[in-house]
Amino acid sequence: MKQNTDILIIGGGIIGVSAAYYLAKAGLDVTLLEKGEICSGSSYGNAGFIPPTHSGPIPAAGVLTQGIKWMLDPKSPFYIKPRFDIELIRWLWRFQSYCNKEAEERTIPLFYDMQTRSLALFEEIIAQENISCDYVQAGGLTLYKSERTFARAQAEIETMAKFGIDVKLLDGNSVRKLEPMINNDVAGGILNDEDAHLNPALFVEALSKQAEKYGAHILKHTEVLGLDNVEGRISNVHTTRESYHPKEVVLAAGAWSTSLVKMLNLSFPMQSAKGYSLTMENPAQLPTLPLFLGESQVAVTPIGKSLRFAGTLELAGFDLSINQRRINAILEAAQRYLDGVSSENEPKLWSGLRPVPPDGLPYIGRSERVKNLIVATGHGMLGVSMGPITGKVVAQIIGEEKLDFDVLPFAVERFSR
């Protein structure tokens, strides 16, 4: 049986749920499809950071040089699983062209603006909808183990200052006064007062319930099997339940978006970057601030009474298996920076796929080739922190309202022009 709906959203992570919330709140007829549980993908077990002060793109200046050293080490922060994959080769070729200062400085103000706007929306939504999700805005602290990398942090501060990002450089003694857990051989760090953190799963699950309260239809365990493209419009969406005849389709399926757009004879380059986390319940000690371990690229987040360690970027295709060596590498990194990293309870392990375009910029906006398709994916490791603002802008696009930010840099077909 075919169902009619004004707006059909594909994807039940933070971006799809945020779009459903804003659209339903505006009184529109919205149906959201999720092939698993709500917030069962990358929105579930990530670090839970909302970090405007971390607004650099993945293909930043110096990343390629460091990445070459890392990419064949299975325990490194950035790892490419050896395999022949023509799409990966093409992605890497594009990726390397954005690993420069000019491209990085074009991206930083875009990401900073989006994350700052999202931070305000998190606070607004949490207050208005009375959502309990361990949200705290206490800032954050980036730590540097070696004197050499700590010295380079001064250049990072100067770059951030160009874009109005206010942070402070602290020596080793100063960071240990803030966080006694920090080991004595940590050289120093960068402190900010702007960043926030939360339990992403609790937030997304609560927001989906609020979207339902406003009239959205949230359908779990409903997988999209086919999309019919008739004269440049999606006419039908076929699922494991039934078929839908939507006026507008929002694609917010994260790493799985690339396979879905192929059904429409569209393509946009994107790789799924696997990340891991381990969460300790009732650890022996909790830091008061979220920490980012600079050389190891590991995030340490106090979430309620638990402590989450998250990190690594692994290009391994659509492989969600847990690589124990990479989990061990995250924990070993934490122990190099922090004292007392332990718990009597076995940590909960998680892996998820983050969608990464080669230029590091998400795809946001209406497709030029499929007129009733709005794409909102490709946010890399900043999906949670950009989720609410992306969902709001999707609602503004559909409602033909003035947009909170210019989506031109995020054009869906920018690589196929």
Counted beta strands: 19
Query: Helix proportion of residues, in percent?
Result: 25-40%
Rg, Å, rounded: 21 Å
How much of the residues is beta strand, in percent? 25-35%
N- and C-termini, Cα separation = 38 Å
CATH domain class of the largest domain:
Alpha Beta
From the helix content, strand content and strand pairing, which structural class follows? Answer: alpha/beta
What does the oligomeric state look like here?
single chain
- The helix tally amounts to 11
- Summarize model confidence as the mean pLDDT: 92
Could you tell me the CATH topology label of the largest domain: D-Amino Acid Oxidase, Chain A, domain 2
CATH architecture of the largest domain: 2-Layer Sandwich
Any idea how many domains?
Answer: 2
Tell me the major beta sheet: 9 strands, mixed
Question: Any idea what the shape is?
Answer: globular
Spell out the CATH superfamily of the largest domain: D-Amino Acid Oxidase, subunit A, domain 2
Task: Describe the protein.
- Helix 1 runs parallel beside helix 11.
- The chain has two domains: 161 residues, FAD/NAD(P)-binding domain; 216 residues, D-Amino Acid Oxidase, subunit A, domain 2 (D-Amino Acid Oxidase, Chain A, domain 2), CATH 3.30.9.
- The chain starts with a strand and ends in a 19-residue tail after the last helix.
- 49% of the residues are buried.
- Strands 4, 5, 6, 7, 13, 14, 15, 16 and 17 form a nine-stranded mixed sheet that branches. Strands 1, 2, 9, 10, 11, 12, 18 and 19 form an eight-stranded mixed sheet that branches.
- The protein has eleven helices and 19 strands.
- A hairpin with a 6-residue loop joins strand 18 and strand 19.
- It has 417 residues and is α/β, with parallel strands linked by helices.
- The protein is 33% helix and 25% strand.
- It is globular and about 65 Å long.
- The longest helix has 29 residues.
